[in-house]
């Protein structure tokens, strides 16, 4: 399917607005959109939202024989996919230029910068190493896919835990997460891409272009940097001529942005770690805001307010005080409790079942079967603390 | 879940849900027929609601349900804003936001002849109406009405911005006594073109000075 074409008047409008230093969504020239990072229930799954652009990163691992040229190093494999749900211009199984460019930039940013210690991924030298596979899926395209993809990839890698292994001679035992806690990857630094779009032959630049702005751009400069101000990769596309001081200025802006984004990632990781430790709920379902539509809305109705006090006092004097409704909890067995007595079965279906509750008063040592399912008997352990009560016969 | 209502009049302006049923009640005046618009369906002696929304009424006997939806249903003679994507031979290919591109003949402009071709470039905006708009055929646009006059249609938009609106807001703008348009007129002078495919083009002719004062007023919240 084709994407909606950009009309001439839109193009003129956007360029004129950029000349006056205005953007469609009201941002400043160097402003990023709202970044939101959330993690899934499994380790290594991360969704990044950059404004309306959404990207999902997933990390997985596998034991494979290593490459012949590097027998002591693990293997990293990167894959970025443009899902057709991201934009009508993306078709499945089509090798577009954008896809190739994004894949190459992601690989260069993460592999050549050596941000992951591949030596630690070696299990048996020359025979078995870990292959870490990073899959990035673009869920919605609203501009600046490169930045979102790099944030998703590095967050997912930092969040990922690989299974623990034990080596005895030539035997390798891989422990499941229940047997031994999985181990995080050893990450030296976090390279993050920052994109700069250039307009009108390089005279104007914008950070984090949205989709409309990307369509009218002349060229793109992507700088991958980490928070220690080390440039991991630089790429300029579009064929525009950039001056040296322009590139230097961009790298300065990039270092500021990267430190902010790295802090955001660390905060998100810390939050997730805390919630998992405390045993709270985590995962994508929790990170989505609850949107409720209020269902009851009534027009204001006038209320009769004369003699309110007198009638209220009258009513209070007339009624009796309510009985104490608090009942003490009842222990049927250790670890279980019952508050209240429940109501007697009023269905009146079977004669014999109604007689049973009366006869159980004396037998307090017997196991109280509460369910009438046909499975094995429900055995309540630790019967010492049983009190004699009328069990609630549930149907 | 069916509630049988005595007549329509009680429920005008109220929210109805799919499954509500009206029994047929003919009005005293008029030729005795009721016209049902979108959201209502006749089923024998009853009229059933199949979309949730507010019941609206137009004299003398038209009823319909105002509901929110994202999908545009465009019919013949609806005016839309299209973007020219290609020129091939005698026709222009125009994107109107549907799955197919509409075709617009170069002779369908006011005053166009074989020698006198209209000045339309790829990427221009056109305001036209549909002559063919059903799901089985390729849609066809014209920028000319049945008498041969342009009547506001044609190529437009040297400046300004094209953007998308929700269908509900677009219908409110197109309503004959639109309060929104009146309120906006008081604030600043502008031109507005509204297409039934949810696209709106707007342009204003203010000097930079006037624009600055307007932005200041908006920032203060005095509008």
UniProtKB/TrEMBL annotation, chain A:
The keyword rRNA processing applies. InterPro entries: ExoRNase_PH_dom1 (IPR001247), ExoRNase_PH_dom2 (IPR015847), ExoRNase_PH_dom2_sf (IPR036345), Exosome_comp_Rrp42_subfam (IPR050590), PNPase/RNase_PH_dom_sf (IPR027408), Ribosomal_Su5_D2-typ_SF (IPR020568), Rrp45 (IPR033100). Residues 32-163, 189-255 form the Exoribonuclease phosphorolytic domain. This is Exosome complex component RRP45. Keywords: Cytoplasm, Exosome, Nucleus, RNA-binding, rRNA processing. Its main location: cytoplasm. It is found in: Cytoplasm; Nucleus, Nucleolus. GO terms for molecular function: mRNA 3'-UTR AU-rich region binding. It comes from Sinocyclocheilus grahami. GO terms for cellular component: cytoplasmic exosome (RNase complex); nuclear exosome (RNase complex); nucleolus. It holds the Pfam family RNase_PH_C. Belongs to the RNase PH family. The keyword Ion transport does not apply. PANTHER family: EXOSOME COMPLEX COMPONENT RRP45, EXOSOME COMPLEX EXONUCLEASE RIBOSOMAL RNA PROCESSING PROTEIN. One of its GO terms (biological process) is U1 snRNA 3'-end processing. Signal peptide: none annotated.
TrEMBL record, chain B:
It holds the Pfam family RRP40_S1. Residues 160-201 form the K Homology domain. Coiled coil: none annotated. Gene3D superfamilies: 2.40.50.100, K Homology domain, type 1, Nucleic acid-binding proteins. One of its GO terms (biological process) is CUT catabolic process. It comes from the Eukaryota. GO terms for cellular component: cytoplasmic exosome (RNase complex); nuclear exosome (RNase complex); nucleolus. Belongs to the RRP40 family. This is Ribosomal RNA-processing protein 40. It comes from Sinocyclocheilus grahami (Dianchi golden-line fish).
């Amino acid at each position: 399917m084709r994407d909606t074409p950009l009309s001439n008047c839109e193009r003129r409008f956007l360029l004129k607005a950029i000349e006056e230093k205005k953007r469609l969504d009201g941002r400043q020239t160097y402003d990023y959109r709202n970044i939101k990072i959330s993690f899934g229930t499994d380790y290594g799954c991360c969704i990044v939202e950059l404004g309306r652009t959404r990207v999902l990163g997933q990390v997985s691992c596998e034991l494979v024989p290593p490459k012949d040229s590097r027998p002591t190093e693990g293997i990293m494999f990167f894959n970025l996919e443009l899902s057709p749900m991201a934009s009508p211009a993306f078709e499945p199984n089509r090798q577009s230029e954008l896809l190739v460019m994004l894949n190459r930039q992601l690989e260069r940013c993460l592999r050549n910068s050596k941000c992951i210690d591949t030596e630690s991924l070696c299990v048996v030298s020359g025979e078995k190493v870990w292959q870490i596979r990073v899959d990035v899926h673009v869920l919605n395209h609203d501009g600046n896919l490169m930045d979102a993809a790099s944030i998703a990839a590095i967050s997912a890698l930092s969040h990922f835990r690989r299974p623990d292994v034990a080596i005895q001679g030539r035997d390798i035992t891989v422990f499941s997460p229940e047997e031994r806690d999985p181990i995080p990857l050893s990450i030296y630094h976090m390279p993050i891409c920052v994109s700069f779009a250039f307009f009108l032959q390089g005279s104007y630049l914008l950070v984090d272009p949205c989709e409309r702005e990307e369509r009218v751009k002349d060229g793109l400069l992507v700088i991958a940097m980490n928070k220690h101000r080390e440039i991991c990769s630089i790429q300029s596309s579009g064929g525009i001529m950039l001056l040296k001081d322009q590139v230097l200025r961009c790298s300065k802006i990039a270092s500021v942005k990267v430190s902010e984004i790295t802090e955001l990632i660390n905060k998100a990781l810390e939050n997730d770690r805390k919630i998992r430790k405390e045993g709270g709920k985590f995962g994508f379902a929790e990170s989505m805001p609850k949107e409720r539509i209020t269902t009851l809305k009534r027009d204001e109705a006038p209320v009769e307010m004369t003699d309110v006090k007198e009638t209220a006092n009258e009513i209070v004097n007339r009624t009796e005080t309510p009985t104490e409704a608090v009942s003490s909890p009842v222990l049927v067995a250790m670890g279980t409790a019952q508050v209240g007595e429940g109501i007697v079965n009023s269905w009146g279906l079977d004669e014999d079942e109604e007689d049973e509750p009366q006869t159980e008063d004396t037998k307090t040592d017997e196991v109280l079967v509460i369910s009438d399912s046909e499975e094995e008997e429900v055995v309540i352990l630790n019967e010492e603390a049983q009190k004699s009560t009328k069990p609630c016969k549930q149907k | 879940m069916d509630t049988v209502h005595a007549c329509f009049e009680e429920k005008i302006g109220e929210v109805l849900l799919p499954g509500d049923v009206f029994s047929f009640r003919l009005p005293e005046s008029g030729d005795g027929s009721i016209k049902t618009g979108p959201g209502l369906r006749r089923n024998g002696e009853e009229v059933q609601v199949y979309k949730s929304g507010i019941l609206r009424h137009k004299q003398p006997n038209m009823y319909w349900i105002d509901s929110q939806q994202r999908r545009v249903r465009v019919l013949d003679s609806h005016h839309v804003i299209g973007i020219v994507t290609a020129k091939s031979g005698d026709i222009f290919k125009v994107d109107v936001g549907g799955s197919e591109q509409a075709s617009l003949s170069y002779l369908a402009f006011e005053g166009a002849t074989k020698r006198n071709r209209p000045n339309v470039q790829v990427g221009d905006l056109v305001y036209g109406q549909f002559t063919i708009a059903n799901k089985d055929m390729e849609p066809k646009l014209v920028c000319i009405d049945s008498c041969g006059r342009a009547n506001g249609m044609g190529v437009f938009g040297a400046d300004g911005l094209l953007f998308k609106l929700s269908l509900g807001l677009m219908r409110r703008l197109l309503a004959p006594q639109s309060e929104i348009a009146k309120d906006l007129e008081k604030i600043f002078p502008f031109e507005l073109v509204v297409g039934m495919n949810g696209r709106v083009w707007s342009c204003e002719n203010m000097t930079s000075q006037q624009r600055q004062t307007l932005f200041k007023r908006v920032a203060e919240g005095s509008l």
